[in-house]
Fold this sequence. Notes:
This protein is an alpha/beta fold. It has nine helices and eight strands. Helix 9 links the parallel strand 7 and strand 8.
Amino acid sequence: MLTNFFIAIKNTALDILFPPVCFGCKNHLENRDKFICDGCLASIKINNTLFCPVCQARLPENKRVCSHGLKKTDEFPYLLAAAASYDDKIVRDLIHSYKYEYFDKLSSVLGAVLAAYLDSVIKNSKLEIKNFSVTYIPLHLFRERTRGFNQSKLLAEIIAEKFNLEIIGALQRVRNNPPQAKISKNNRAQTKNYKKRQKNISNAFEIAASGKISGKNIILVDDVYTSGATISEAAKILKRHGANKIIALVVARA
Ligand SMILES: [Zn+2]
Ligand SMILES: [Zn+2]
């Protein structure tokens, strides 16, 4: 209760301190709820295919075209659906503000980016998602309380609603590990980085809805795809509980 009260005060203060300007071009915005002008939103380059989770090759036919061996296929048991690139400054700013400045209202902007991307993959690559269920990367209860929301869950809810899909709280976070972004940020060796992140995230998740996963195709939502360690860890657990196809849906890939 008290937390909500302070969030309300903080939001009001933000409104006063920061009049509504566009995130991208800093021009004045008529609509306080919009955060970004139509021009900047339209300038985000939205992808139209799925990607290989290992080498990030485009997959215009929605199936693996590259071979990375059985071990890697087991480690990355999903296809990557990334709406945009983290190199895009507007995308980066939006995600950063969304995550770290607690702008939970930004979920509608990022949700719209995700939805536009899925629409374009459905149209261009003939992806069928009608028989998919949606789930998301959970936060530890403690962190969700502090932040006030789970950014991935909000995006998952938007996608489930827009595409009329079932949403399942499939996973729970049982370990409050440090955020992946804090792990070896400057480590240039990608493999080493993956291993460090993998170690940090291992055993962080448990299944929360085991009976609901078996035989299902799953869209697993998160905000950013960096090394893939978090999504791999979650996807492996979903697979162990009988998940069929998994598509990892993120706003941006780094
Ligand atoms: Zn703008
Ligand atoms: Zn590949």
